[in-house]
Amino acid sequence: MRRNHLLLLVDDDTDDHEIFRSALSHIEDQITLLCASNGQAALQMLSAQETLPDFIFLDLNMPRMGGIQFLSEIKKSELLRSIPVIVYSTSNHPHDKDRSLQAGAERFVTKPAKFSELCSMIESVIKQKPHNASE
Known about the structure:
Layout: E1 5-10, H1 14-25, E2 31-36, H2 39-48, E3 55-58, H3 67-76, E4 85-89, H4 94-102, E5 107-110, H5 115-126
């Protein structure tokens, strides 16, 4: 049985929002995408949401509050800490990957160069059991 998915993309690049949204339209599941331009805006959005996202895709380098600081903040929250966070960055530097995973990210993904790879990556993530799925 299919279920709707709610994803949050935290990225300051609005072009990436549109590419991500376009990739989601190619995936068969029903997916709602929320977008925030930085970690601070994402925290405000999460505090106002009735339904928490199944997954958060997080860029590292953003103004106001970057990815690592955002990750640190949500891991302090009883309500938010169980949401799987996928760091989604242009970086492929091992230090960024290590820092992200140590801060609590579930996965570290370098932004794919090909649209088809982006679609495949998103599909592989949403096939995981979401944190708020009931059994």
